Amino acid sequence: MITKFSIDESAATAEFGMSCQRLVPWSTGAEEPPLGVMACFLPAGNESIQDCHDQDEVMLVLSGSGEVVIGPDRAGIRTGELIVIPRNQPHVVINPTTETLRWVSMYWPLHEPAGQAGTEDASA
Predict the structure, then answer these.
(1) How much is the average pLDDT of 68-97?
(2) pLDDT at 123
(3) pTM, entire model
(4) Where does residue 30 rank: exposed (0-12), middle (13-18), buried (19+ CB within 10 A)?
(5) What is the band of 106 on the pLDDT scale with cuts at 50, 70, 90?
(6) Can you give the residue ranges of the Cupin type-2 domain (predicted)?
(7) CA distances from residue 58 to 11, 41, 45, 91 in whole angstroms, order as listed
(8) What is the pLDDT of residue 28?
(9) I want to staple 18 with a disulfide (CB 3.0 to 4.6 A). Which of 42, 43, 53, 79 is the partner?
(10) How far is CA 110 from CA 27, 36, 81, 102, in A?
(11) What is the dihedral of CA 61, 67, 68, 72, to 10 degrees?
């Protein structure tokens, strides 16, 4: 069986100071997957809420450009780039442009380990 989803900003909800569309896990999945995936849409001139969690994360930029701040480091990001966010590192995404910044974020494990306190239970 093939399961597929469309990345669609109209299916997103407000999270982390932007719009996020949860893709994995999906509601019809028989087993819980080992990771989570969500599409993120950061409007022009905005930044995400700072997040920090005990999960590794990668961001794949689908369109647009902006900046990411991870701990004390800051770097520009653009379409086609993959950004690694190590666990337990505070991070913020900034969009100083006039276009929406879109990316897919994958994080694992799906749930933070017990006893770990992050600002959210998923990534930004």
Answers:
(1) 98
(2) 43
(3) 0.87
(4) exposed
(5) very high
(6) 42-107
(7) 22, 15, 23, 12
(8) 65
(9) 42
(10) 14, 5, 23, 21
(11) 160
Give the three-class secondary structure for 10: helix
Q: Which fold has domain 34-108?
A: Jelly Rolls (2.60.120)
Q: How far apart are CA 57 and CA 39, in angstroms?
A: 13
Which whole number is the average pLDDT over 100-108?
97
Amino acid at 39: A
Overall size of the chain counted in residues:
124
- Give mean pLDDT, residues 50-64: 97
CA 8, 13, 17, 20 dihedral sign is negative
Cis bond before residue 25 (omega within 30° of 0) = yes
What the block records as the tokens of 75 is: 């770097």
